[in-house]
Every structure is written in C-alpha cells, then in structure tokens.
Write a structure and sequence with these properties.
It holds the Pfam family Gly-zipper_YMGG. Helix content is 38%, strand content 16%.
Amino acid sequence: MKVWIPVVVASAVVLAGCQTPMTNTQKGAAIGAVAGALIGKGTGDHDKSRYVWGAAVGALAGSAIGNYMDRQEQQFREELSGSGVEVIRDGDNIRLQLPSNITFATDSSQIASNFDPILVDVARVLREYEKTTMVVEGHTDSTGSAEYNQQLSESRAWAVSNHLARNGVDTRRITIMGYGESQPVATNDTASGRQLNRRVELRIVPNRA
C-alpha cells in the first residue's frame, strides 16, 4: 500500500526574511496567516486504512496555534518523562515516538501490560487538547516479508488507536496508517538500527480554522 499525504508548507515563505529567531507562537501566527488550514484528503487501497482530517472538536487560528501546541508539548513532556516515549516538536506539529521494544512483544500487536498506563497518560493529554487531529503510524524493520511487515504495522497502529479510543479520545480525530518497512529512520543493517525502525508514531496536528 502506498499512500501520499498532502502537506502544506508555508513557513519557508513567511519566515524567509526574518533576521531574528521566532517563538513557536510567532511561527504559528505567520503560518496560520498564509496557510489557512492544514486539512487534506487521502485514500488507500487497504480496507483497514482510515484517513480522516478535520473532524476535531473546534479549531485554531493565527497566534493561538503556536501557543496551544506549546502548552500541549509541555504537558506531554511532563506526563511521559522517563517512559521511553520520545516527544518531538516539528513546527506546529508534535510527534510521539513509541519504540516497539517497550510497546509490544516481538511479532505481536498486543500492547504490553506495563505500557498500558503510559497510553492512558497520552489519552489524558489528547482529551484535554481536543483541537487537534492525529495520525497513528505503524512502522517495522525490513526483517521478514514486505507483506507481513505491512500487516504488522497496520495491526500495531490499530492497537494503539483502539486503546486511545477506549480511554476517551474521539475516533473522528484519529487516522490509521501502516507503512510497513517503507519509512526507516535508521539502517536495517544493524540490530540497533532495526530497533529504531520498529515503532509506532503519533503525529499530532492542530485543527486549523
């Protein structure tokens, strides 16, 4: 399955002439003024794919975007400190990287019992900051067949999505994507690289007015 996700990139246009560093709040104001909305539509050829944007409760505009995401990022960092989940800021988006070695048993899509309370914490923050949508992405290393890895990546993404839904996150805000082995973040030639590639990521995006 190959899925292309449209991305609106306005920051380069707005920020190109800036001579001094900008805060995330200021960037949000600039990007919001030019980009307007980051709401796309995608399709896939797998019946387990769900790709819905813009269904969040409420929306954000202008300088409110950066401030809102700043506060959400800080709360994620506080809630997930020491959990093994990496919180990554990417412009106005937030990525939560869940390594498979702490989330799932080997070759399994069942969430490890000791990781359950961590996802409860993630859901708590997502419920509080409801003016966002999110993509739950499953990724694998290249060990095994591409077909098997695709299925495993989807199953793990669905497991995380279902857990969030059981803990009160509105399913209209959630998109499920499985990428299999197609998007490695490290080499698959080493054990440490393969471990980094086995992951689930939550990509959290502000719902723009």
